[in-house]
Amino acid sequence: MQKLYKYLLAFSAALIIALGGYVYYVVTFETGLVSVTGFVNDYTQKLEADFITSITNICQNLSQKTKIHLIVVMVQNTKPYDTGVYAARLLKNYDEAHPDIDGAIIMLINLDKGTVNMEILPRIQFMFPLSYGEKILNESVIPILNEADKAARELIAGGKSRDGANEFIGRAILEGVRAISQKITDEYAKQKFTDEMIKQKKAAEDGARVKWSFSLWFYLGMALCAVLIYVIFKVRMRIRCPKCYYKLKINEETIEVPEKEKPGLTIEVIQCNHCGYYDMKRIVTYERGFYFGHLYEVIKDVVKSYYRKKKREYRKQKYDE
Ligand SMILES: [Zn+2]
Q1: 128 pLDDT more than 60
Q2: Distance from residue 226's CA to the centre of ligand 1 (Å)
Protein backbone atom coordinates (compact mmCIF):
# COMPACT_ATOMS: atom_id res chain seq x y z
CA MET A 1 0.00 0.00 0.00
CA GLN A 2 2.81 2.32 0.91
CA LYS A 3 4.46 1.55 -2.40
CA LEU A 4 1.36 2.57 -4.33
CA TYR A 5 1.13 5.81 -2.34
CA LYS A 6 4.70 6.71 -3.28
CA TYR A 7 3.98 5.89 -6.86
CA LEU A 8 0.92 8.14 -6.96
CA LEU A 9 2.84 10.99 -5.33
CA ALA A 10 5.63 10.75 -7.92
CA PHE A 11 3.09 10.66 -10.73
CA SER A 12 1.23 13.75 -9.42
CA ALA A 13 4.47 15.66 -9.05
CA ALA A 14 5.49 14.83 -12.61
CA LEU A 15 2.07 15.90 -13.86
CA ILE A 16 2.20 19.23 -11.98
CA ILE A 17 5.70 19.97 -13.29
CA ALA A 18 4.70 19.18 -16.86
CA LEU A 19 1.53 21.30 -16.65
CA GLY A 20 3.33 24.17 -14.98
CA GLY A 21 6.01 24.03 -17.64
CA TYR A 22 3.42 24.12 -20.38
CA VAL A 23 1.59 27.11 -18.87
CA TYR A 24 4.90 28.93 -18.39
CA TYR A 25 5.84 28.17 -21.99
CA VAL A 26 2.53 29.42 -23.38
CA VAL A 27 2.46 32.57 -21.25
CA THR A 28 6.04 33.59 -21.93
CA PHE A 29 5.70 32.73 -25.57
CA GLU A 30 2.69 34.98 -26.02
CA THR A 31 3.85 37.78 -23.76
CA GLY A 32 7.36 37.67 -25.14
CA LEU A 33 6.14 38.95 -28.49
CA VAL A 34 5.80 42.59 -29.44
CA SER A 35 2.30 43.68 -30.31
CA VAL A 36 1.60 44.27 -33.97
CA THR A 37 -0.52 47.33 -34.68
CA GLY A 38 -0.71 48.61 -38.20
CA PHE A 39 1.52 47.77 -41.14
CA VAL A 40 4.79 49.23 -39.81
CA ASN A 41 5.91 48.34 -36.29
CA ASP A 42 9.27 49.88 -35.45
CA TYR A 43 10.40 49.08 -31.92
CA THR A 44 13.90 50.45 -32.52
CA GLN A 45 13.12 54.09 -33.44
CA LYS A 46 15.43 53.73 -36.44
CA LEU A 47 12.85 54.31 -39.17
CA GLU A 48 12.39 57.90 -40.27
CA ALA A 49 8.85 59.26 -40.50
CA ASP A 50 9.02 59.65 -44.28
CA PHE A 51 9.89 55.99 -44.72
CA ILE A 52 7.18 54.89 -42.31
CA THR A 53 4.63 56.89 -44.32
CA SER A 54 5.81 55.53 -47.70
CA ILE A 55 5.92 51.92 -46.50
CA THR A 56 2.52 52.22 -44.81
CA ASN A 57 1.00 53.63 -48.00
CA ILE A 58 2.26 50.71 -50.09
CA CYS A 59 0.96 48.16 -47.57
CA GLN A 60 -2.35 50.01 -47.30
CA ASN A 61 -2.82 49.94 -51.08
CA LEU A 62 -1.91 46.28 -51.23
CA SER A 63 -4.40 45.33 -48.52
CA GLN A 64 -7.18 47.29 -50.23
CA LYS A 65 -6.47 45.70 -53.60
CA THR A 66 -5.86 42.13 -52.52
CA LYS A 67 -6.90 41.65 -48.87
CA ILE A 68 -3.33 40.50 -48.24
CA HIS A 69 -1.57 42.23 -45.36
CA LEU A 70 2.14 42.89 -45.50
CA ILE A 71 3.48 43.64 -42.02
CA VAL A 72 6.88 45.09 -41.19
CA VAL A 73 8.23 44.50 -37.70
CA MET A 74 11.59 45.87 -36.58
CA VAL A 75 12.93 44.84 -33.17
CA GLN A 76 16.26 45.19 -31.41
CA ASN A 77 16.26 41.44 -30.71
CA THR A 78 13.93 38.47 -30.42
CA LYS A 79 15.35 37.09 -27.16
CA PRO A 80 14.92 34.44 -26.02
CA TYR A 81 13.55 33.13 -29.28
CA ASP A 82 15.01 32.32 -32.61
CA THR A 83 14.14 35.02 -35.18
CA GLY A 84 12.37 32.56 -37.48
CA VAL A 85 10.22 31.11 -34.68
CA TYR A 86 9.43 34.61 -33.49
CA ALA A 87 8.30 35.71 -36.96
CA ALA A 88 6.19 32.58 -37.45
CA ARG A 89 4.51 33.14 -34.09
CA LEU A 90 3.80 36.80 -34.92
CA LEU A 91 2.25 35.76 -38.23
CA LYS A 92 0.08 33.07 -36.65
CA ASN A 93 -1.23 35.51 -34.02
CA TYR A 94 -1.86 38.17 -36.65
CA ASP A 95 -3.83 35.73 -38.81
CA GLU A 96 -5.95 34.64 -35.85
CA ALA A 97 -6.66 38.25 -34.90
CA HIS A 98 -7.72 39.18 -38.46
CA PRO A 99 -10.20 36.58 -39.70
CA ASP A 100 -11.32 38.74 -42.63
CA ILE A 101 -7.99 38.85 -44.48
CA ASP A 102 -7.02 36.59 -47.38
CA GLY A 103 -3.40 36.29 -46.35
CA ALA A 104 -0.50 37.86 -44.50
CA ILE A 105 3.25 38.24 -44.81
CA ILE A 106 5.57 39.34 -42.05
CA MET A 107 8.96 40.88 -42.63
CA LEU A 108 10.90 40.81 -39.39
CA ILE A 109 14.14 42.75 -38.93
CA ASN A 110 16.28 41.70 -35.99
CA LEU A 111 18.80 44.52 -35.55
CA ASP A 112 21.13 42.91 -32.99
CA LYS A 113 21.56 39.79 -35.11
CA GLY A 114 21.47 41.75 -38.35
CA THR A 115 18.93 39.38 -39.93
CA VAL A 116 15.76 39.76 -41.96
CA ASN A 117 13.15 37.02 -41.91
CA MET A 118 10.10 36.63 -44.05
CA GLU A 119 7.13 34.50 -43.05
CA ILE A 120 4.27 33.86 -45.48
CA LEU A 121 0.96 32.20 -44.64
CA PRO A 122 0.90 28.80 -46.39
CA ARG A 123 -2.45 29.49 -48.04
CA ILE A 124 -1.01 32.30 -50.20
CA GLN A 125 2.24 30.59 -51.06
CA PHE A 126 0.75 29.30 -54.32
CA MET A 127 0.86 32.90 -55.58
CA PHE A 128 3.75 34.19 -53.50
CA PRO A 129 6.11 31.34 -52.67
CA LEU A 130 8.67 31.55 -49.89
CA SER A 131 11.42 31.15 -52.48
CA TYR A 132 10.27 34.34 -54.19
CA GLY A 133 10.22 36.16 -50.85
CA GLU A 134 13.80 35.05 -50.22
CA LYS A 135 14.77 36.21 -53.69
CA ILE A 136 13.43 39.68 -52.93
CA LEU A 137 15.29 39.74 -49.61
CA ASN A 138 18.54 38.71 -51.28
CA GLU A 139 18.23 41.11 -54.21
CA SER A 140 16.49 44.19 -52.82
CA VAL A 141 16.81 44.23 -49.04
CA ILE A 142 19.99 42.60 -47.81
CA PRO A 143 22.44 44.52 -50.09
CA ILE A 144 21.10 47.86 -48.76
CA LEU A 145 21.18 46.60 -45.17
CA ASN A 146 24.83 45.64 -45.75
CA GLU A 147 25.43 49.21 -46.86
CA ALA A 148 23.74 50.36 -43.65
CA ASP A 149 26.16 48.23 -41.63
CA LYS A 150 29.14 49.55 -43.52
CA ALA A 151 28.00 53.15 -43.11
CA ALA A 152 27.33 52.62 -39.39
CA ARG A 153 30.83 51.18 -38.85
CA GLU A 154 32.40 54.12 -40.65
CA LEU A 155 30.36 56.59 -38.61
CA ILE A 156 31.33 54.91 -35.34
CA ALA A 157 34.99 54.78 -36.41
CA GLY A 158 34.78 58.51 -37.13
CA GLY A 159 33.47 59.09 -33.61
CA LYS A 160 29.96 59.91 -34.79
CA SER A 161 26.53 58.46 -33.91
CA ARG A 162 25.49 55.52 -36.09
CA ASP A 163 22.07 57.13 -36.62
CA GLY A 164 23.30 58.53 -39.93
CA ALA A 165 23.07 55.01 -41.34
CA ASN A 166 19.38 54.69 -40.49
CA GLU A 167 18.37 56.02 -43.89
CA PHE A 168 19.81 52.86 -45.47
CA ILE A 169 17.61 50.70 -43.23
CA GLY A 170 14.52 52.67 -44.28
CA ARG A 171 15.47 52.36 -47.94
CA ALA A 172 16.10 48.61 -47.63
CA ILE A 173 12.68 47.99 -46.12
CA LEU A 174 10.96 50.29 -48.60
CA GLU A 175 12.57 48.50 -51.56
CA GLY A 176 11.60 45.10 -50.15
CA VAL A 177 8.02 46.13 -49.47
CA ARG A 178 7.71 47.65 -52.93
CA ALA A 179 8.98 44.46 -54.62
CA ILE A 180 6.71 42.19 -52.55
CA SER A 181 3.69 44.39 -53.20
CA GLN A 182 4.41 44.48 -56.93
CA LYS A 183 4.70 40.70 -57.18
CA ILE A 184 1.51 40.07 -55.20
CA THR A 185 -0.43 42.68 -57.21
CA ASP A 186 0.73 41.07 -60.46
CA GLU A 187 -0.16 37.57 -59.28
CA TYR A 188 -3.48 38.79 -57.96
CA ALA A 189 -4.31 40.40 -61.31
CA LYS A 190 -3.39 37.16 -63.07
CA GLN A 191 -5.54 35.18 -60.65
CA LYS A 192 -8.45 37.57 -61.14
CA PHE A 193 -8.05 37.33 -64.89
CA THR A 194 -8.08 33.53 -64.72
CA ASP A 195 -11.13 33.55 -62.44
CA GLU A 196 -12.91 35.91 -64.81
CA MET A 197 -12.05 33.70 -67.80
CA ILE A 198 -13.39 30.63 -66.02
CA LYS A 199 -16.55 32.55 -65.06
CA GLN A 200 -17.08 33.79 -68.62
CA LYS A 201 -16.52 30.35 -70.07
CA LYS A 202 -18.91 28.78 -67.59
CA ALA A 203 -21.55 31.43 -68.31
CA ALA A 204 -21.17 30.82 -72.05
CA GLU A 205 -21.51 27.07 -71.55
CA ASP A 206 -24.57 27.52 -69.34
CA GLY A 207 -26.08 29.89 -71.90
CA ALA A 208 -25.55 27.37 -74.69
CA ARG A 209 -27.09 24.62 -72.60
CA VAL A 210 -30.18 26.70 -71.80
CA LYS A 211 -30.60 27.64 -75.46
CA TRP A 212 -30.62 24.03 -76.52
CA SER A 213 -32.80 22.57 -73.84
CA PHE A 214 -35.53 25.19 -74.19
CA SER A 215 -35.54 25.73 -77.93
CA LEU A 216 -38.72 24.83 -79.83
CA TRP A 217 -36.56 23.81 -82.81
CA PHE A 218 -34.81 21.26 -80.64
CA TYR A 219 -38.11 19.52 -79.82
CA LEU A 220 -39.35 19.81 -83.42
CA GLY A 221 -36.10 18.27 -84.63
CA MET A 222 -36.46 15.46 -82.12
CA ALA A 223 -40.06 14.78 -83.24
CA LEU A 224 -39.00 14.75 -86.90
CA CYS A 225 -36.18 12.32 -86.14
CA ALA A 226 -38.60 10.04 -84.29
CA VAL A 227 -41.04 10.05 -87.22
CA LEU A 228 -38.20 9.35 -89.70
CA ILE A 229 -36.89 6.46 -87.62
CA TYR A 230 -40.42 5.05 -87.35
CA VAL A 231 -40.98 5.27 -91.13
CA ILE A 232 -37.61 3.67 -91.91
CA PHE A 233 -38.41 0.90 -89.43
CA LYS A 234 -41.84 0.35 -90.99
CA VAL A 235 -40.47 0.21 -94.53
CA ARG A 236 -37.74 -2.21 -93.47
CA MET A 237 -40.28 -4.39 -91.67
CA ARG A 238 -42.45 -4.49 -94.80
CA ILE A 239 -39.74 -6.17 -96.80
CA ARG A 240 -38.94 -8.49 -93.91
CA CYS A 241 -40.72 -11.72 -93.16
CA PRO A 242 -43.14 -11.21 -90.27
CA LYS A 243 -42.29 -14.69 -88.93
CA CYS A 244 -38.56 -15.07 -89.20
CA TYR A 245 -37.47 -11.52 -90.20
CA TYR A 246 -35.54 -12.76 -93.21
CA LYS A 247 -35.71 -10.78 -96.42
CA LEU A 248 -38.94 -11.36 -98.36
CA LYS A 249 -39.19 -12.01 -102.05
CA ILE A 250 -41.90 -9.84 -103.60
CA ASN A 251 -43.25 -10.48 -107.11
CA GLU A 252 -45.89 -8.46 -108.88
CA GLU A 253 -48.08 -10.21 -111.38
CA THR A 254 -50.41 -8.24 -113.57
CA ILE A 255 -53.75 -10.02 -113.94
CA GLU A 256 -55.62 -7.34 -115.76
CA VAL A 257 -54.13 -4.29 -117.46
CA PRO A 258 -56.04 -1.10 -116.51
CA GLU A 259 -58.08 0.52 -119.25
CA LYS A 260 -59.78 3.87 -119.57
CA GLU A 261 -63.01 2.98 -117.77
CA LYS A 262 -61.91 -0.20 -116.05
CA PRO A 263 -59.30 -0.51 -113.28
CA GLY A 264 -56.70 -3.21 -113.61
CA LEU A 265 -55.57 -5.79 -111.08
CA THR A 266 -52.14 -6.74 -109.91
CA ILE A 267 -51.34 -9.51 -107.49
CA GLU A 268 -48.42 -9.02 -105.20
CA VAL A 269 -46.91 -12.34 -104.23
CA ILE A 270 -44.90 -12.26 -101.05
CA GLN A 271 -42.83 -15.23 -100.08
CA CYS A 272 -40.06 -16.05 -97.65
CA ASN A 273 -37.45 -18.51 -98.87
CA HIS A 274 -36.30 -19.11 -95.33
CA CYS A 275 -39.40 -20.26 -93.47
CA GLY A 276 -41.90 -20.67 -96.23
CA TYR A 277 -44.16 -17.77 -95.28
CA TYR A 278 -46.48 -16.89 -98.12
CA ASP A 279 -48.95 -14.09 -98.73
CA MET A 280 -50.79 -12.44 -101.59
CA LYS A 281 -52.09 -8.94 -101.98
CA ARG A 282 -54.60 -7.66 -104.43
CA ILE A 283 -53.63 -4.29 -105.81
CA VAL A 284 -56.12 -2.37 -107.90
CA THR A 285 -54.35 -0.36 -110.58
CA TYR A 286 -55.49 2.48 -112.76
CA GLU A 287 -54.45 3.88 -116.03
CA ARG A 288 -51.97 6.73 -116.03
CA GLY A 289 -53.72 10.12 -115.80
CA PHE A 290 -56.75 8.42 -114.36
CA TYR A 291 -55.77 8.91 -110.74
CA PHE A 292 -56.71 12.53 -110.18
CA GLY A 293 -60.14 12.18 -111.73
CA HIS A 294 -61.00 9.09 -109.76
CA LEU A 295 -59.26 9.80 -106.53
CA TYR A 296 -62.39 8.89 -104.61
CA GLU A 297 -62.51 5.47 -106.22
CA VAL A 298 -58.87 4.95 -105.47
CA ILE A 299 -59.22 5.83 -101.82
CA LYS A 300 -62.32 3.68 -101.52
CA ASP A 301 -60.49 0.75 -103.02
CA VAL A 302 -57.50 1.23 -100.77
CA VAL A 303 -59.73 1.30 -97.70
CA LYS A 304 -61.70 -1.70 -98.92
CA SER A 305 -58.60 -3.75 -99.63
CA TYR A 306 -57.24 -2.83 -96.22
CA TYR A 307 -60.34 -4.16 -94.46
CA ARG A 308 -60.40 -7.18 -96.68
CA LYS A 309 -56.85 -7.93 -95.67
CA LYS A 310 -57.67 -7.44 -91.98
CA LYS A 311 -60.62 -9.75 -92.29
CA ARG A 312 -58.49 -12.38 -93.98
CA GLU A 313 -55.88 -12.14 -91.25
CA TYR A 314 -58.59 -12.42 -88.61
CA ARG A 315 -60.03 -15.51 -90.24
CA LYS A 316 -56.60 -17.04 -90.60
CA GLN A 317 -55.94 -16.42 -86.93
CA LYS A 318 -59.24 -18.06 -85.95
CA TYR A 319 -58.40 -20.98 -88.17
CA ASP A 320 -54.98 -21.39 -86.57
CA GLU A 321 -56.53 -21.54 -83.15
ZN1 LIG B 1 -39.74 -16.26 -93.04
Answers
A1: yes
A2: 28
